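Quick one:
INPUT:
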């Protein structure tokens, strides 16, 4: 969804209102990477294509070149990809003076087709799969994060040892405390809205210094694009105001983590295909099959909801982070919550994803699992009422979410549905990324180990 048309951009460049265009891809970690174009060059020719090193889709979060990727390596010389601006994503960035942004698809030089493991390509493929079945996927993500006093540079120089949240107490729905944070949150809401991203609201969340930003539901690709831009904007706007925004899933052991809940439904002919007024809870057969697929194949796709070692620290009982792959009606202890049951807006909220997820990969994974449920006409297991953290249910081991990255890696590597949906090369690519994340952690010596064994071992 564009906020401005290309002809409008030309006019703004001519008037001097815009002088810089950011051309960005979405990398494996969900970040915006790219180039700053002089706006005149962009409208003259840069809008057609530009280029980037193909290692941008084969690095870890620290931009290290990682061995083991077949698509990009030292032995292949780290060549180029084509970055093809998707002009439907063109928008101004009001928080950066004179600047506009366009997202790019990543194209292979030789085949002139999408690079299969690029996040936008993965999501587009699943959207097309849904459309072949007659559905338009509509989705929304919640962005939770913590605000800390001080900029990133100051916090890094202190070794992350003096992290001070912007609030001293829990601020869930708290108006007085969030008023104090409007120096960040007000420009965030307004700038994003002016950029064509349909922000609904922000609120205090369940811990001191924790925020939540809500963006209106949209077609799946728009939803993921909105999320990636909003996350980037949050960090930049907070930095300009002298604060640091962190989307780390779990920043402290005795605090709640940050999530990114995913709301989803399938639409047909402009109406919610999940809604059936005559069905139990208003859940159509389509919705039941889709939810059954989400549950059945969640283990295989779990890496795309929890991609880092730290991601799994969030899954703690009685923390509002689910620990089971179960569903229920309007129940925040469940992995999948049904919202607006018996209403025309009935939908599924996946509560498993952390704030550190890549939105394009996470939404692609949700669609892949749900659509498999429809194609295979999977039977939906019974809903579970009450406290889903309780340990008195049958088949509990089967219902438990993966609790380590190692487990998620095995599930992804061996997952039949994942390989059918994304292809062997894509799955192997992300398995390699996940294994490197695990290897880095396994070789690190942590503060916990020093405290425990420095003297006593």
């Amino acid at each position: 969804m564009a906020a401005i048309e290309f002809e409008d951009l030309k006019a703004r460049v001519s008037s001097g209102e815009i002088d810089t265009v950011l051309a960005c891809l979405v990398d494996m970690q969900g970040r915006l990477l790219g180039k700053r174009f002089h706006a005149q060059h962009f409208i003259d020719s840069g809008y057609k294509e530009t280029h980037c090193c193909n290692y941008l889709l084969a690095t870890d979060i620290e931009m290290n070149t990682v061995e083991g990727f077949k698509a990009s390596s030292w032995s292949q010389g780290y060549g180029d990809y084509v970055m093809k601006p998707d002009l439907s994503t063109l928008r101004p960035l009001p928080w950066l003076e004179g600047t506009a942004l366009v997202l790019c698809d990543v194209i292979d030089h030789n085949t002139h087709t999408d690079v299969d493991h690029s996040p936008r390509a993965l999501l587009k493929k699943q959207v097309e799969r849904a459309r072949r079945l007659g559905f338009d996927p509509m989705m929304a993500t919640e962005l939770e994060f913590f605000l800390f006093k001080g900029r990133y540079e100051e916090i890094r120089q202190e070794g992350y040892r003096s992290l001070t949240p912007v609030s001293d107490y829990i601020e869930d729905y708290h108006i007085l405390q969030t008023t104090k944070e409007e120096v960040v949150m007000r420009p965030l809401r307004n700038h994003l809205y002016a950029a064509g991203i349909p922000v609904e609201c922000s609120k205090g969340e369940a811990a001191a210094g924790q925020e939540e930003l809500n963006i209106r539901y949209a077609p799946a690709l728009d939803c993921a694009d909105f999320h990636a831009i909003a996350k980037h904007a949050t960090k930049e706007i907070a930095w300009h105001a002298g604060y640091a925004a962190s989307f780390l899933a779990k920043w402290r052991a005795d605090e709640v983590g940050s999530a990114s809940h995913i709301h989803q439904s399938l639409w047909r002919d402009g109406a919610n295909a999940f809604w059936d007024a005559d069905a139990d809870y208003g859940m159509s057969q389509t919705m039941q099959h889709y939810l059954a697929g989400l549950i059945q194949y969640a283990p295989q796709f779990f890496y795309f909801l929890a991609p880092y070692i730290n991601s799994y620290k969030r899954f703690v009982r009685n923390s509002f982070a689910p620990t089971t792959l179960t569903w229920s009606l309007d129940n925040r202890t469940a992995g999948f919550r049904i919202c607006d049951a018996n209403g025309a807006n009935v939908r599924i909220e996946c509560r498993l994803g952390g704030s550190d997820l890549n939105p394009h990969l996470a939404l692609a994974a949700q669609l892949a699992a749900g659509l498999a449920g429809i194609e295979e006409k999977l039977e939906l297991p019974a809903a579970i009422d009450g406290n889903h953290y309780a340990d008195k249910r049958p088949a509990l081991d089967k219902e438990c979410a993966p609790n380590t990255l190692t487990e998620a890696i095995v599930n992804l590597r061996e997952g039949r549905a994942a390989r059918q949906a994304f292809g062997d090369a894509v799955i192997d690519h992300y398995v390699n990324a996940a294994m490197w994340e695990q290897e880095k952690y396994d070789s690190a010596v942590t503060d916990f180990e020093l405290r425990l064994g420095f003297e006593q071992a």
